[in-house]
Amino acid sequence: MSSPQTIYVAGDGSGDYNCAGKSDQVQINQALQFVANNSEYTTVHLKGPFTYVIDDSILIGNNTILEGDSTAVIKLANHAGWPSMKPLIQQMGGKGNNITVRGFEVDGNYEDNREILLGRGYYNVMYFTYCNNVKVYDMYMHDGNGDGLRINKGSNIQFYNNTVYKLGHDGLFALRSENVEAWNNRITCRTNSALRVWNSNHVKFHDNVIDSFHHWSAGGPGIQIEKGPDSSNQTAIVNDVEVYNNTIYNSFGPGIWMPDYDTSTSIGDQGKSVHIHHNIFYSTGTNPSITSIGGIVANGFNGTLIENNLFDSCYGAAISLTSPPEYIPSGGLFKITVRNNIIVNTQEGITDPNGTGYAAINNFPQIYDLVLQNNGLYDNVRGDYKNCTSTTDIYVNPLFADPKNHDYRLLSVEGRWDGKKWVKDKVSSPCIDAGYLHSDYSAEPEPNGNRINIGPDGNTIYASKSGSDGSTPISSEPSTAWKWSNKIKKYIERLWNDAGNDIEIIPNYTIVSPAPAQSAPSIVNETQITTSVSYKESPSIYGERIVWQDYRNGNPGNASWDIYMYDITASEEVRITTDESWQENPEIFGDRIVWEDGRNGNQDIYMYNISTSTETQITNDESDNTRPVIYGDKIVWEERLDSGNHDLYMYDIPTSKEIRITNGESDKLDNIHPAIYGDRIVWQRHAGENHDICMYTISTRKVTQITKNGNAFNPAIYEGRVVWEDHRLADEYDLSSSDIFNYDLSTRRVTQISRSGRAHNSAIYGDRILWYDFRSGNDDIYLYNISTSREIQITTNMSEQEFPAISGDRIVWQDYRNVPYNADIYMGSISYPPAADF
């Protein structure tokens, strides 16, 4: 079965070790132990397609490769309950050497482990200590509670060609380590940074694409370079860090943050000379809750050189020097040199605009010597300098090729590289040949004016030309600043599916634009439903009753959620469940409440009848049954299969009959997120990399595929309308872009409802469509009335309001305005004043 040097693990019986979709770390660890004990073997290979569910850590030994097919998925078990700093993958012993992890997917299963707060050390994907020669590449890691790769006291660390999406802390976090390199990664942050080092040296971060998921919890920088007091490493040196050729955009925190909080000159002064060059920063610092935002924010790090970068529309400042360390560097001042950069369109800070909106800000001129040389500054909202100045900067439009699409190459009459070939423009940028006189320009193609260009292409083989001889570039290959891995390219290509080709199975399917949204003269009266200091999530409403899941009776580290109900008419709160295990994801219809329940060791569906005060167990098999929805006498839910996929089941309450709706096991499809109204069930079908919306008609048992673009998520249905969250307009600069779409079953038309690119989790009641939207820098609730073509902003508080539900004129949501990280349930009642009589 095994090939030379390789042991295979599978879920279909074809491996040397075979898994069943539960506690799969047992067989994986047996395979890894075999390799550790037999030196002629080097590799454990996880075969796909299969989801390996683990409820304990995977242990990898020295001189070992853990690899897998791209369709092999390691997934954390639901409600794992592990202690902090226990990772999914770690080394076998106290030290490690020559460890490689490559090629497969890791699902951190955040949704089913939400009882643990993000960024607190829980469920890191990998955590290695005292390990040398560690490689992690070609991985897809997503939806976790902790770090992607966390390494402490390691050396020779390589992290490359990975896709990291919405983990709970850092993508890579190296502590007290040396020779750390990360490149060609595509990282979307959720809670902290993409790449981070602490008291580490000989570091290179280059050719990465980094952004943030737009959510209140995505509060960190793109890259973080950190030095601080360390009792276990008193002589930490951080004087060889290079950051280059990265694109960082839409970060919640600064694009790069460099905090040095050492207190001793003898130790602290060893944090210095960071080199940041040839990076592109745009729209960084979008967090509405913090003030230390910008393109680059530095706290210390004497001798840092920032050159040939591009800063566009950064919030706060492009360069901001803030609270210095307590020690004084040799020479008396922290010297930061900023040269050959282009800084345009700097915006005021969102939280506190006072004193912001400048290209460069020196908040402590008595501490910092900020040297500005030959930068190009233009259209910064409050001006170019605060507590600093320059005699060599220029103040002109840099004349980019296509700034709206973030092509920042400089126009040139003699030659500009357009990504494929050299083209000639009618005008030339004033930033050509305008750089620092003593900067190296030798990599620029001739004619180059014997002087470096300002901006990120300065001193590269694709710098825009000066002179008149029209010479060709040195190389026919794109510069490293524009090269991405094949894995990232494939990801981008999938997101670039042509929206106009989204042809539904039903004939005469067309896509139309909505009528222009009008501001609505409406009144929204808010009511705070919950007041206890605990987590409250997943609200649902029907008529006069609201239900949600509540953690007030839980303890740190366990999963004790309960279901609560609020009666609007009686102004009375009622605890529905009292079992010590978890009860989650409640839904209500009429006098029935359904939820998923963990009291039996797995997840079952339960129902509570409010009128009779009786509780009924709906499912009693050993599978995990989750995310129930209810309409009338019918309950629908997901059941997890051994393969890791899900099928949908329906339960008819009067007949006590259970019906299987989908057959994901034979179709190898994942069927999730069901919704029901009347005779129809809709859900999200996951096939390979495609996510589409399907519909099942109960009376005819007919399945209809609503979308075919592969980017449709989280459907809802009311009468003849289906709505969903759609990512078809995402592009390489904004992978998380999403809007709300509506399909009318009678007219067979799809309408794009929102246009912010930041709309999520739609709900519908009658002709009203609801979602939460990040367009203003935080999540707010919005409503669109189909009949009147009116859009209403329901919430305006600067905190986060998310996951709305609607019944009639009442809307409920979870709201973070009162206690950080602890949501409350709020209700909004909509009323429309009578039109004026003229």
Question: Please, could you describe this protein's structure?
Answer:
The protein is mainly β and 838 residues long. It has a 14-stranded parallel beta sheet, with helices on one face. Strands 4-7-10-13-16-19-22-25-28-31-34-37 form a twelve-stranded parallel beta sheet, with no helix packed on it. Strands 5-8-11-14-17-20-23-26-29-32-35-38 form a twelve-stranded parallel beta sheet. A hairpin with a 4-residue loop joins strand 56 and strand 57. The protein is globular and about 85 Å long.
Largest sheet: 14 strands, parallel
Mean pLDDT reading: 87
**What structural category characterises the helix and strand content?**
mainly beta
Strand numbers in spatial order across the main sheet: 2-1-3-6-9-12-15-18-21-24-27-30-33-36
What keywords describe this structure?
838 residues, mainly beta, 14-stranded parallel sheet, 12-stranded parallel sheet, 4 helices, globular
